[in-house]
User: Fold these one by one.
Assistant:
Number 1:
Amino acid sequence: MTDMELIKDISVSSPTKIVLLVIDGLGGLPDPKTGRTELETARIPNLDALAARGICGMADPIAPGITPGSGPGHLAVFGYDPISSNIGRGVLEAVGIDIELQQGNVAARGNFCTIDEKGIITDRRAGRISTEKCTELCKLLNEISVRGVDISVHPVREHRFVAVFHGVYDSADITDTDPQQTGVPPADVKYLGPGAIGLSKHVKTFIDKARELLAAHQPANMVLLRGFAGKPRFPTMQEIYKLNPLAVAVYPMYRGLARLVGMEVAKTGTTLQDEFDTLKQNYKKYDFFFLHVKWTDSAGEDGDFARKVNVLEQVDAALPDLTGLEPDVLVVTGDHSTPAVLKGHSWHPVPVLLCSKYCRTDPVQAFSETAFLTGGLGRIQSTDIMPLAMANARKLTKFGA
């Protein structure tokens, strides 16, 4: 892992441009019926052509064998230590929908879920209810009163919401209520240190009252909370890399994460093409672009192999919009793998491709996990991606005499 203080010392501002395309949940595993992964199944001639032009490899977001969440996975791609910089998902969601958190506040990411008459979770996402339904239910939850704290509940997208506990807490160190599996009841709230006792009591009361309020609102008759955290402070990408960065992302969590590391976040539409169009419209104003594609990950988590293949093909079809801009550096990678056969994030390394006029090409001719195992980058850490991109953009000076 490259030391960020070293990068800060040798980075320089320049007019060259870097585009970082993060295809969420990019990596996969073979379909038992065909023996091919999603990437190996998809018709992606533009990505294959890029692989033939650039240098390829595989990246570990955290470390071999460690399954990353989306937050740590993205922080690593941005060059931040994903372990020491790890933050709760609630903060990412909150900042992503423009909630201004104060020091001492705690935010949690929430799911509306379905429980049966015995209190057992049957669907962690309540059938992916509509955003309109989520907004309606959040208004209901905002009626909850808990002595000693103000609580606000904000809709995010589909079944997701943010709950903010507007207290002045010493610690957010409490356990999640989301067991991240079905067939079990929601987990109990437990504090992990004396500074979080008050928070744990407030959260438990809120959840008990939410259960009562939502009892008649099938399929969204319960809530799950996870990622409790307060507002962190990171050195920004401007401070470290001397960049003028722009993020283009649809989903709030990734918009929030980009803000936390100092990126300006563009207003964009709700489709893949909207995102590519937004980047093109802003291309002259910035020198670094983070473009996020979420739908590959959603398909993988749903176990929908064919849908993930389809999204990859959509990305490939839109890729000429990026390559036509002729960025000095184009990186294509993912924050983690989400194989459809596992229906969730996995520990497998992620494909990474770098194109610039200064990169050494390799024999790789196809954009896939198997092909990239023989690539010239070898197996690297995701934290190595930004220094490589910066070097290829000629934004790093020489270290030492």
Number 2:
Amino acid sequence: MISQCIDVKLPDNPGASARRLTARSVVGVLLAALLPGVALAQAYPNKPVKVLVPFVAGGTSDIVARAVAQRLTEAGYTAVVENRPGANGSVAAEALAKSAPDGYTIMVGSIGVFAINMGLYRAPRYNVLRDFDPITVVVRTPNVLITPPNFPASTLKEFIEYARKNPGKISYGSSGSGSSDHLSAELFKQQTNTFGVHIPYRGGAAAQTDIMAGQIEASFQNFGTVVPYIRAGKMKALAVTSAERMPQLPNVPTVIENGLPGFEVTSWQAVAAPKGVPKEILAKLHADITKGMRSPEVVQRFTDQGFELVLNTPEQTTSFFASEIERWGKVVKISGATVD
């Protein structure tokens, strides 16, 4: 403990006698004046943090959001997940953009919400680079072409042959117009010169349910969400969109192996806050989310399901968003995909 006294001359009153202040008082004054963010960060969080999900429960965004919320809860937060599906994720994204930048509302969203929508809509209801403070990319995973177990084709080549013989008969389900699984199907149809009907859902879980029920014929779903169903024989996997085979399902070939060079698509999930969150709070959120998601049990669980943990910095995430918006804007333009 410091008990020494020091003399401080007041420059606006040179004739006054020296005032004696303790060193502890001087330090307190300096901290209050120069480091206002310290007190702010120490007080945060003092109420529940809302974790928005742009899609229905059960899809990739929902799975990742609940894992993030659990890690925050273990770090001392009260985190509440709120699903707000609609307009390919735009409903939740717009709500995030309009939320107070105080760290009490964040969103876990997909490549569709943070990148593809910017090229998909003529007049987007939000602007990713203007309205959000990116926190981190949490996971990424390829897509996998799945069909009902009783679908007549058992290989990708058989699937292509069937599609060519039955133009327009195959219905492709997706988690929403402009999602990575939708654009995977569009690219696939372009490269194979086949035609199929796009059926958009309000999230991947609904499309997966209809695949297992035989209501739709095919879908390029996020690999990490369908591995358990494939292993259980509830759906059939024909090919993955990764550059190499996935160790979780080593017998499932890649699309590239089947004669479609360059066909590589990876979906990802990221966390963002409204633009303007104090840097101290943003740093705390990043540190607590990435630390929690790096725990061995979490890494093992997501890896087993086919996800790769990314957990990059806010600065890296911002640059990544910009590059993905540019990349997928070109893909959307070529495919002709639109929602308005």
